[in-house]
Amino acid sequence: MAEFLSLHDAVARYVQDGSTVAMEGFTHLIPFAAGHEVIRQKKRDLTLIRMTPDLIYDQLIGAGCARKVIFSWGGNPGVGSLHRLRDAVEKGWPHPVEILEHSHAAMACAFEAGAAGLPMAVLRGYIGSELPSVNEQIRFIECPFTGERLAAVPSVRPDTSIVHAQKADRHGNVLIEGIVGVQKEAVLAASQSIITVEEIVDELDTHPNACVLPSWAIDAIAVAEKGALPSYTHGYYERDNRFYKKWDEIARDRDTFTQWLNDHVLNSAESAGGQV
Amino acid sequence: MGSEYTNSEMMTVTAARALENGTTCFVGIGLPSEAANLARLTHAPDVVLIYESGTLQTKPDILPLSIGDGELSDSALTTVAVPEMFRYWLQGGKVDVGFLGTAQIDRFANLNTTLIGDYREPKVRLPGGGGAPEIATSAGEVFITLKHSKRALVKDVDFITTVGFGRDGKARDGVPNIGRGPSRVITDLCVMKPDAETRELVVVSLHPGVTREDVVEATGWEIRFAEQLETTPVPDENELSILRELKARTERAHSGQQE
């Protein structure tokens, strides 16, 4: 059964130095509040998995939490580069970070295979791409029935997955609505999971085919109001596109970034996405 | 004639016209999204737009800044999980056209969105593959749109993130269950198509006012021109006004998000 914890206690219990952590949410429902708590607790040597590192991993990387990043598209959507990711990869600041990159299709399949308890995912992928030459985790197999050459990647099995959702009921069942990304797969693929929610309600008030994660499939639930900002929560608040644009200036320079991190994360209480 | 328009508008309108009504199109963010939505708002009201965030048959009123903006989900027929999007809808063969942008493209229409320089010591690190590597092979065909420059159109890309026709033009030969690949490349100067035999990109149409020299000057390889070189039709008033309204709405929404 899911346990209701404070965000501080959930992160302290389920994220250890050296852990493999997936904080998912495809543009939507990115668990920024949880990411900031990980930064505040100064977790180190994390292997961070996310299809789109987005600002949340840019912040974790710049704060020195990451040792390795596994991803499939590492930009600031519609704006440009993730400058902290680039600085770590190109210049080793604040320390070198190893990267392992995939395509979206392969990562989505790898999360799904993880949720399904399989060791690997098979897809018709990477044909003609040079990504397999720089990522030894991309291999090829022959279909035993047709002989077709198909790509294989290891499944994603994080120690801990963290996602944000609209709401939980008092039993700890969680509803995710809108763009659902790979959140359900991330939670089911992980050994442990934390879900932050906007609110706790008496009834989820949902329909039969909704994306619901049952309480017994979750370890911890923490309330984090506006916990996805500057990303968004469908039905609650919109994406703060202005902040995504502003991040380009903040993250471009090490000093400006460090100042921002001090002001809005490290010296701030449990924050809603580090907004001003 | 008589309408004033920019090179960028010429590119977007030409890219939009490439999409036929009723086509199912997997849309990349940025220029492809702008063109695909212009098509939907003009000659192709029944075009089906799919974005990798899982939004099926979406009709955004403003252009999304990110691939997963709420606008895409709000205006979609339905929203599916990302694994379903890639496995059932793309890999399953339900997409006619993949519409992509890129940082670099080479003469065999291979795309590089990974990095400039050497992989272990990149000069410039780019975002990476995203959905493109499989969109380019699973979609029936691929349209590519980008701004024309010598830095972007190179003889050989530094890294093949997404295959066009490979380093030798033959990467798709004999591969089962693979799409036709890039069928046209639309820039702000011209339209290119792959040569039927060599697969090397050839200019088939110059935009009005653009010379062969302009294209040669802005291309990183010895670009060839089709024997019957055409002039791209100019945008009409309706296309231009709808495009400008779309961009103005988008600009207003993205700058005043919280109002």
Secondary-structure map:
The complex is a heterodimer of chains A (276) and B (259).
Chain A lengths: L2 E2 L2 H8 L5 E4 L8 H9 L5 E4 L4 H9 L3 E6 L3 E2 L3 E2 L1 H9 L6 E4 L2 H12 L4 E4 L15 E4 L6 E6 L5 E10 L4 E3 L6 H7 L2 E10 L9 E3 L6 E4 L17 H12 L1 H13 L10
Parallel strand pairs in A: 1-15, 2-3, 2-11, 3-4, 4-7, 11-13, 13-15
Antiparallel strand pairs in A: 5-6, 8-10, 9-10, 11-12, 12-14
Chain B lengths: L6 H12 L5 E4 L3 H11 L6 E4 L3 E4 L11 H5 L1 E4 L2 H10 L5 E4 L3 E2 L5 E2 L2 E3 L4 E4 L6 H7 L2 E5 L36 E5 L3 E5 L6 E6 L5 H6 L6 E8 L5 H19 L4
Parallel strand pairs in B: 1-2, 1-5, 5-10, 10-11, 13-14
Antiparallel strand pairs in B: 2-3, 3-4, 6-7, 8-9, 11-12, 12-13
Helix pairs in contact in B: 1-2
Describe this structure in words.
The complex is a heterodimer of chains A (276) and B (259). With 276 residues, chain A is of the alpha/beta class. Helix content of chain A is 29%, strand content 25%. In chain A, strands 1, 2, 3, 4, 7, 11, 12, 13, 14 and 15 form a ten-stranded mixed β-sheet that branches. The radius of gyration of chain A is 18 Å and the shape is globular. Chain B has seven helices and 14 strands. In chain B, β8 (115-117) and β9 form a beta hairpin. The longest helix of chain B is centred in the C-terminal third of the chain and has 19 residues, at 237-255. The mean pLDDT of chain B is 95. The interface between A and B is large, with 57 and 57 residues.
